[in-house]
């Protein structure tokens, strides 16, 4: 992250009915504040859930980031303290072996066991669950989130859920009456919300219960393979709950006030909310976000490993841009693949520029304010990431100093030391160019109309006033485009991108010429005009 910030002192708690910044985190915070006003509570508990059956993916980061923004807005709005728990359902039984892990054959022998009782296929931690939990915490810590990690295994075995589990036995029939109508006839015949851990095999057993002993706090069941009967305490980690009942029990036991979830869990949220009320608690305020899609329009998945990882994104762009992508329109499904990265970077830069001129409610409606937790980087970035990428493509930049030599033409005072965010963008631009732009560059030869217009541009560029800025250059480009019978100006600028840069689209071309240089641009045009008509 950038090192220099303009720190914004938190404003006094605001009325919920006036001057609320127009930003979705504040809208969510206001809902939560209304809830606490009704209950009289003086602190809020936020929660996020994580199923560690596969490696953590970028959607998990998005849930924690978005929840953190609501939490920060809540603190500003109310002045009340809060906590965020990142809860790992690591006591779940492994249902299938993920596609993107080593030693898959070894894992096949542990199907059905809690993730924290399965050896780590990577060989770095005491269990598969512990490995994936460490991965989760590792990339959350990279972003500086303020959270408390919680393990289902730890909570169950330490007795932190015991009271809630015994309460579930008391209202067992009511819980079943809510769940059973949502199941098919075959599933209803064997369903139980309580899952005993087999005392001999260690498998999480999904079996019908033959007896509920509320006084003893136990359940009886029969192993379908051996026919042997067991009586198991529901407390102390000897049992866990089916996940919808488990979710509701966690809300009840911990007193969760706010939790987000994806669109695919809408029905589950509704059902778990009913169970939570049966247990005796108000379910948390809920927020439903849309899912991320990979390049093929498929939902990203931990087990499949499709889509982008956090590591992928951070190779090509700074973390602020990933946060910007996550902030935008959570209710809308978004394609999460490499080509969205430059746009996210430039959107963050545009919002950062606006933030420097804002204060009060306008500033608090700016995504940069939420991303920085109220702190605004003071650095100005004089050019867009897209422009850097196009510059890197034209000059075949393999080193940062090549780009900096051109940047200083446009912003003479810019230095890597004085502009750390820009310096990071330069490094990312070089990597992005090597991996994506260079392999995809396809220059085409101009047709007769385009040749005439390009030749005119090469002839008129030297006549611009010395030191002409991007506005003057852009005006010349417009004038030349209008003088020739292009279908529209879009076709003329498409010519510039395709013929000169070897790509379908690009930056504002006047800005590109200003930073690349007029003599260099003329040489680029002359090279294109000399290209044979059948050259690609």
Structure description:
The chain is an alpha/beta fold and 536 residues long. 48% of the residues lie in helices and 11% in strands. The chain has a five-stranded parallel sheet with strand order 4-3-2-10-11. Strand 2 (44-50), helix 2 (58-78) and strand 3 form a beta-alpha-beta unit. Helix 7 runs antiparallel to helix 10 and helix 19 runs antiparallel to helix 20 (470-483). The longest helix is centred in the first third of the chain and has 21 residues, at 58-78. The chain is elongated and about 95 Å long. The model has no long low-confidence stretch (mean pLDDT 90).
List key phrases describing it.
536 residues, alpha/beta, five-stranded parallel β-sheet, elongated
Category from helices, strands and their pairing: alpha/beta
Largest sheet data: 5 strands, parallel
Radius of gyration, in Å, reads 29 Å
Query: What shape does the CA trace take?
Result: elongated
Q: What oligomeric state is this?
A: single chain
What is this structure, in a nutshell?
This protein is an alpha/beta fold and 536 residues long.
Topology (elements, then pairings):
Blueprint: E1 5-7, H1 24-39, E2 44-50, H2 58-78, E3 82-88, H3 104-108, H4 128-142, E4 148-151, H5 152-157, H6 162-170, H7 172-179, H8 185-190, E5 194-196, E6 209-213, E7 218-222, E8 229-233, E9 239-241, H9 243-254, E10 258-262, H10 266-279, E11 285-289, E12 292-293, H11 310-316, H12 319-327, E13 334-335, H13 341-355, H14 360-364, H15 367-371, E14 375-377, H16 385-395, H17 400-410, H18 420-440, H19 448-460, H20 470-483, H21 489-501, H22 509-516, H23 518-529
Parallel strand pairs: 2-3, 2-10, 3-4, 10-11, 12-13
Antiparallel strand pairs: 1-14, 5-9, 6-7, 7-8
Helix pairs in contact: 1-2, 6-9, 7-10, 9-10, 12-13, 16-18, 19-20, 19-23, 20-22
